[in-house]
Amino acid sequence: MSIIDIHTHAFPDKISKRAMSHLESMTEDWAAVGQGTVRDLLKFMDNTAVDVSAICGIATKPGQWSGILDWLLGVMGKHRERIVPFASVHPQDENIGDALMQIKDAGIYGIKLHPMHQDFIADADEVMEIYQQAAWCRLAVQIHSGRDIGFPNDAIPDRASPKRIANVLDRVDGLRILCTHMGGWRSWDEVEECLVGRDVYMETSFALGHMDDEQFLRIVKNHTPDRVCFGSDWPWNDPGTELAKLESLGLSAGDLEKIKFSSSAAFLELSG
Ligand SMILES: [Zn+2]
């Protein structure tokens, strides 16, 4: 059976050490399991039978998007069978529409947004253009959802809340969007109120072991496994450990297949 890990991060070799030690310094609650390089990610994938991983870039400052795109295209060129890159734009970039068109024309499937690292509020008027343009040029959007373990004292704790993401769905037609961490990290009651049953994908990282198995299974059932994707958030978790947790829950073989592969293939609109 093929397995897609829809949520990982990696950095260019030159900056991976610096990037990882910066990110690790943001929280004492969690340590990375991987080094944050593509080579190391491929090693974890080989060890755990993950066929394809989505690497998410995040532009933390305006002006970074084209450098990130170039790097991701290089990675994709070398590892076309195994890596699906998510590019990034920063909400304060100029000409976001043009950037998204260039990303789409380069053959990229989607973009990653991170309200904490990019300092925006998920449903703010200023960022609607990003969702609208992404929907218009058929780029998938993966958005960090809920709280973030690296921002325990965020001044706007609900900036990526399930409720705000539901507002985005109300305002933007035709958006293909995936919410990380089962719809919103540590906001799972709100996920059940606002997002379950909506036209949105969710992924599993930082959910199993962080929420009750019972609630996880209820969300999968009510949202349907067709909209739930396996994700590890490597280098913060080992995809093998995350897969083992998922497989221990008593889900049917059919539901597991959807979560491990088909839902992500549908989200990415992979043909074949
Ligand atoms: Zn992420």
Beta strand count: 8
Silhouette: globular
- Main beta-sheet annotation: 8 strands, parallel
Helix content: 40-55%
CATH superfamily: Metal-dependent hydrolases
CATH secondary-structure class: Alpha Beta
Instruction: Provide the low-confidence segments as ranges.
Output: none
Bound molecules: zinc ion
What is the string of helix and strand elements?
Answer: EHHEHEHEHEHEHEHEHH
CATH topology: TIM Barrel
Number of domains: 1
The end-to-end distance, rounded to whole angstroms, is 15 Å
Multimeric state of these chains? single chain
Q: Which second-level CATH architecture applies?
A: Alpha-Beta Barrel
Describe this structure in words.
The chain has 272 residues and is of the alpha/beta class. It has one domain (4-268): Metal-dependent hydrolases (TIM Barrel, Alpha-Beta Barrel), CATH 3.20.20.140. 40% of the residues lie in helices and 11% in strands. The chain has helices at 13-25, 38-48, 65-78, 96-105, 128-136, 162-171, 188-194, 213-223, 239-247, 253-268; strands at residues 4-8, 52-56, 83-87, 110-113, 140-143, 177-179, 201-203, 228-229. The site of zinc ion (ZN) has 6 residues, from loops.
